Amino acid sequence: MEKLKKLTFSFLFFIIPITVLNAQAEDCSCKKDFEFLNQKIQQTPSYKVNKVVYELEYTRIKKNILNLNSGYECFLQLNKLMLSLNDRHCNLYGINTGLDEESKKDLAKFETFKTSELFTVYPRPKINLDSLRTTLKQKPITSIEGIYYRKGYMTLGVYKTA
Questions:
Q1: Higher pLDDT, 103 or 16
Q2: Which terminal Cβ of the chain has fewer Cβ within 10 Å, N or C?
């Protein structure tokens, strides 16, 4: 029985420092970005107008970012925080431009890019993209469904599923 007590004590002695070290680990960059963005937002006129809604969204998102493991997911959460301001003058853009024109022509670089998180994070529909493009081009400009372009970066099709 005495051996078991010593073993348990040794085990706890070993586990507690690991827990303390992990607790002292530096915050993830998403949390830092989140707090930085929050400070900047609080200086905007739209924050003063939409403070109640913003604070609710801030509290909800703050809980979500603790478990994020993706830069893309972090970016989505930061955008949700910005959207809560309901201010079309405040925008948040990523700095990763994806694949440049030169790299698109280099097959090896293109294949490497196709395995990157930036490429794989977007959903891939299991439909014929040519027929989808044809259908979406016929949608009225006032429709949410359609083709959206970010020149030199991305073409995005938005469509309703059943």
A1: 103
A2: C
